[in-house]
Amino acid sequence: MDPDKSGAAAGILMRTLSGLRSEASRPIIHQKIETAELIWNNKLSDVSERLGTTQITSTSPSPGLPLALSPSWEVLQETTARLLFMAVRWVRCLAPFQTLSKRDQLLLLQESWKELFLLHLAQWSIPWDLSPLFNSEKARERLPKDDKVVNNEIKAIQEILARFRQLSPDGSECGCIKAVILFTPETPGLVDAQPVEMLQDQAQCILGDYVRGRYSRQPTRFGRLLLMLPSLRSIRQCTVEQLFFKETIGDIPIQRLLGDMYTMEKSYN
After folding, report:
1. CA distance 6 to 25
2. How far apart are CA 207 and CA 190, in angstroms?
3. DSSP string of 220-256?
4. What tens digit of pLDDT does each residue of 17-45 get?
């Protein structure tokens, strides 16, 4: 990517994320992040409406919620497939991402899909208690037995979901967190890492400004949001594939499918 294109990409992100600082002006990047989140939330509502009451079982109430519910394993499998497609669509709706080269777009998506999926799962699962499913026999039979690494990863996923439920990030926070994850300049093979680094830095800075302005009485909120990122990255892609997608895609690595999924999303936009 030449310097002019790099500057254009950074400029788009600056204008978009700067919208979080001023609700009155609402420049482009804030609108684009909100558009992506709005599309995602509309799709989320459609998915949630598919959960019939016969597919839901009651469990013990969770703190802050009148009743915690647990969907069936079949519902979870169907939903996770939809959430993956929705994560790809969220990426497609993010205008600054489209300023990067096509190769870099695919590399960044392949590198970050697992974290984006888990964040979307966390957003969807706020009203649910998934612990019974993670501890069920159906979950165990999909994963290596007596594997300490896998067991720790399952615990980490549950901790991420619990922390997300506790913090309940709003749409602007979720959009910025996803942008920080998506724009990872350390991704191997990038044609031009500089604009990616600029986009990530600015997403993180705007998130900090937004949180400090919107949640001034929660001085640790920004740090707690960022602390989710190492936990998300500590979980291996193969564990997520085996746990959530074994029945829908079999043993095919999701990284191999993302190119087709991304192209499919282009045809719908």
Report:
1. 24
2. 25
3. THHHHHHTHHHHHHHS-HHHHHHHHSHHHHTT--HHH
4. 444 444 434 444 444 555 555 555 555 55
